[in-house]
Amino acid sequence: MRVVDLKIEDVAFGGKGVAREKGKAVFVPYTIEGETVSAEIVREKKQFAEAELVEVKQSSPDRVEPQCPYFGRCGGCAYQHISYEHQLAIKWRQVRDALQRIGKLKDVPMRPIIPSLKQYAYRNRITVHAQEGVIGFFRRDSHQLIDIEHCPISSDEVNRALAELREQSPRDGHYTLRATSEPRVFSQTNDAVANALRDLVVNLVPPNQELLIDAYCGTGFFTKALLDKFERVIGIDWDKFAIATAKENVTEKETYIAGDVEVELQKVGAVHPNRPPRANEVGSGRLRSIAPTTLIVDPPATGLSANVRKAILDLAPATLIYVSCNPATLARDLKELHQKFIIYSITPLDMFPQTAEIEVAAHLHA
Asked: How far apart are CA 47 and CA 45, in angstroms?
């Protein structure tokens, strides 16, 4: 393998610095734009190369000392070597660039990124792996485990649970450690930023609305916060355990459906607004024959399927809020949704400080 001197030009989504050698992109982890480094080329492809950092020859003023002794080996964090303010700037730029490059969107209405109140000790749960007495996380780009005694980005309660697990000498397997005895369903791992996201969504939705459909609703995180603004709310999620939790203490306004979002949204679109739904339509008549005035979608990282995008275009709700954990699939989906919707705002949120992950809320109007 050869070692080359490189000038880092940018930081790509995923956290690796981007340099160029003879016109070819070279990706180098743990670097910052503006830095001069030496790096060892470890994989070379036709269009790009992967390298490992050997030495920082000229460092960025935004370079800081990582707080975790496992940083650089553990695959969890990508940005502990970067000051927090600059992490935010990088993530904001990555969202904008994805929307422009992948979504072909011009004049993206970007809002300032919402930071995390805590840059460390914010995670309310982690999943660790146990194998042959080693308990911890996988190494970066590897299935080899690193023994972890303390995770600096996790809360004190989670680290106490980790210490207790280590004392038990557990069997090989995966263990999810939580700060609270919350239901075993999906929830955001950063409570403060999750609450900021919920407040943002509530503020984006106008009052005195008729029907909200919250697709991928989980336990009703957004739905229940919006009850005062709607005559009726519908939550849809494939996770029957999340739906069961959502149905606890339910009001007359609320309906929750355990089912496939794609199927249920297509059923809504199939209902003609001038007649009541037939028994086999829309979850056996659970949804009225009116189009939703507001639709919220919060899909997994894979984004919206082609059929869900089509269903949204057919429904054409007055307000569409798209919450995403993947700027690339968000950009792909907005490229198509932009046919019928105006993009009012794009708000990134730093749900996962020190990592390369980014949360985004897009606000659209028909």
From this structure: 6
The string of pLDDT tens digits covering residues 129-176 is 999 999 999 988 778 899 999 999 999 999 999 999 999 989 999 999
* Interval 281-298: pLDDT, tens: 444 444 444 567 899 999
- Which H helix or E strand runs over 134? strand 134-138
pTM across the whole model: 0.90
Among residues of the chain, what percentage have pLDDT more than 70? 92
d(C-alpha 99, C-alpha 255), whole Å: 34
Strand order in the sheet with 342-349: 254-258, 230-237, 209-215, 294-297, 319-324, 359-365, 342-349
| 3-state class percentages of the chain: helix first, strand second, coil last, to nearest 5 | 25, 30, 45
Are 211 and 293 contacting, i.e. CB atoms less than 8 angstroms apart?
yes
Is the pLDDT score of 272 beyond 60?
Answer: no
The amino acid that residue 9 corresponds to is: E
The first and second tokens of residue 161, run together, are 């649970």
Helix (H) / strand (E) element for 57: namely: strand 48-58
Q: Residue 167 has what DSSP assignment?
A: H
Tell me the C-alpha distance between 104 and 88, whole Å.
Answer: 23
Count of residues in the chain: 366
In whole angstroms, how far apart are CA 196 and each of 299, 326, 349? 18, 18, 9
> Helical H runs in 205-288?
240-246, 261-270, 282-285
Catalytic residue numbers, as ranges:
325
Distance CA 104, CA 353 (A): 28
Binned at pLDDT 50, 70 and 90, residue 269 comes out as low
